[in-house]
Amino acid sequence: xxxxxxxxxxxxRQDLHQIxxxxxxxxxxxxxxxxxxxxxxxxxxxxxxxxxxxxxxxxKVIGKNPTQTLGYRTDLDGLAVTEKTNLAFKSKNIGIMxxxxxxMHMTVALGILDHFAKHQPNDNLxxxxxxxxxxxxxxMQLYDSNVLVGDWKIDAIYxxxxxxxxxxxxxxxxxxTLFAGTTEIHLxxxxxxxxxxxxxxxxxxxxxxxxxxxxxxxxxxxNVDPIIGGVVTIGAIEAGSANNVIAGEASAHGTIRALKxxxxxxxxxxxxxxxxxxxxxxxxxxxxxxQQDGYLPVENNDKLTTEFIKYMKGQAKIDFVETNxxxxxxxxxxxxxxxxGVMFWLxxxxxxxxxxxxxxxSSNALNTGVNAITKFLEYKMA
Length: 382
Ligand SMILES: CC(=O)N[C@@H](CCC[C@H](N)C(=O)O)C(=O)O
What we know:
There is one protein chain. α3 (about 100-120) links the parallel β3 and β4 (about 125-130). The chain has 2 domains: about 5-175 and about 300-380, Aminopeptidase (3-Layer(aba) Sandwich), CATH 3.40.630.10; about 180-290, 2-Layer Sandwich (Alpha-Beta Plaits). The two termini are about 20 Å apart. The strands form 3 sheets. An 8-stranded mixed β-sheet has the order 1-2-4-3-5-16-6-14, sandwiched between helices. Strands 7, 9, 11, 12, 13 and 15 form a 6-stranded mixed β-sheet that branches. The protein is built from 9 helices and 16 strands. The protein is of the alpha/beta class. This is N-acetyldiaminopimelate deacetylase.
């Protein structure tokens, strides 16, 4: 049976790119994936739905003589970004875009699955179609729904993320932590609104929130070992309605990031202390939510990563680079805290970063990615 062509991979990627959906709403996307899988030879395939996660799906390829079960995960969701590329196949879902490359991730996964559906592997291979990577920790929800048990237990798991700054098709990886752990910060301060002319009768939450934002910026600068590093970013604030009204409420939304879980926890403690201090100093209510869910640091397994890097370096047809860690987050970190495995980069050569409205990953990476990973999985199962 013939392997998938570059033209078909390109079409899948273009189709999926046009129908991005937000976390937990990937209904069109999973329908497309199910339809693609339905036209593959079914002889070695078994599928499984995920309770309470209707947009997730598992597909198992039964091995000839299985001694292990490998896992390969792709995420499905898009982002609330309005696409500004000039691509002929740009998003048809206004205000939503595959700005993190999950259309590329899914296409590569389908390319690999296509191969193994036609050429039975020696071991079992489970493809995880995981919703909600950007928000709501779909990886954690999927794992915690107890689907990866019994015959569906995975011994080693792999997954990739596109990397705009690597040449198209280059594979990148590293020992240890690849991506940071993240915690979302939500703060609401409640004081008292009033007339701009009578500040003594009001309790201004814009002033309080401004102090809080500034104090938060001392955490990485003054409390974190500079060699270890971390990030505290407040990406959104909301307060006030008019120039002459004192805002009685103010809210903020941000993210904490670090490569080690212990640093995340230490930063969280400082955020709590600073928030308590602001509440006391400004005599206001502070409702603080720190939400990490499954976004643990993405810690690659030592033994499996050594094997992965050695294999990739040894292939004349694969360009491989050892990369630095990145402060992006990934709920694959949760899966790696439960199952040994490796996350790696696939270069897609774009001048725009992940989450940019102009991100346009090069489709040239698709065929190279599918071939490199398929060959690696075959080597693992030899
Ligand atoms: C690869 C990537 O960009 N991942 C996202 C993950 C978001 C995690 C969570 N919702 C948060 O904001 O902390 C990222 O922003 O790094």
